[in-house]
Design a protein that fits this description.
By secondary structure, the protein is an alpha+beta fold. It has a single domain (7-153), classed as HIT-like (HIT family, subunit A), CATH 3.30.428.10. Helix content is 40%, strand content 17%. The protein contains four helices and five strands; from the N terminus they run H-E-E-E-H-E-E-H-H. It has a five-stranded antiparallel sheet with strand order 1-2-3-5-4. Helix 2 (60-81) crosses helix 4 (137-153). It starts with 6 loop residues before the first helix and ends with a helix.
Length: 154
């Protein structure tokens, strides 16, 4: 079941499209690039294909598939963008649909979760003011296709 008010559900229903489209999909999970404004090259989202708001409500099959998808996605992303670190996190406050942010941190970005979040917020504000640019949809789509090709081989 998908929920009209849920951004993740709208993406899954094809009402909103991530740059490069679906990178990976199985019976339970979908991997796509983050939406516009695209924050960072390779900032990916792994989301459950059905609307569910709590990890405790995952089926055993959904839970079992998740670890491999996170590992394979991080491995492929490492090969493409060569980040200093990849952060995997889930907040689920604004978009309550279960999803995970896969955030590659380059060596020029600050180390530390809080510092990284502050950096992203400042960069987003500068982007809104026209003083800084995020990644173009075309660049995000290209990275998506490269990650997809690696995941097809795993």
């Amino acid at each position: 079941m998908l929920v009209d008010e849920c951004l993740a559900c709208r993406v899954l229903a094809g009402k909103v499209q991530a740059p490069g489209g679906v990178i990976y999909e199985d019976d339970y999970w979908v991997v796509e690039h983050s939406l516009n404004p695209v924050l960072l090259p390779g900032y990916l989202i792994i989301k459950l294909k059905r609307h569910c708001e709590h990890l405790a409500q995952l089926t055993p099959e959904e839970a079992s598939a998740l670890g491999g998808i996170i590992q394979n996605t991080c491995s492929a992303l490492s090969q493409i963008v060569k980040p200093a670190k990849i952060h995997v996190c889930s907040w689920g406050e604004q978009v309550k649909h279960i999803h995970f942010h896969i955030i590659p941190r380059s060596s020029t970005m600050p180390i530390g979760n809080l510092k990284l979040l502050i950096y992203l917020r400042i960069k987003n504000l500068l982007n809104k003011l026209g003083l800084s640019k995020w990644v173009s949809d075309a660049e995000a789509a290209e990275i998506s296709q490269q990650v997809k090709q690696i995941l097809l081989q795993i």
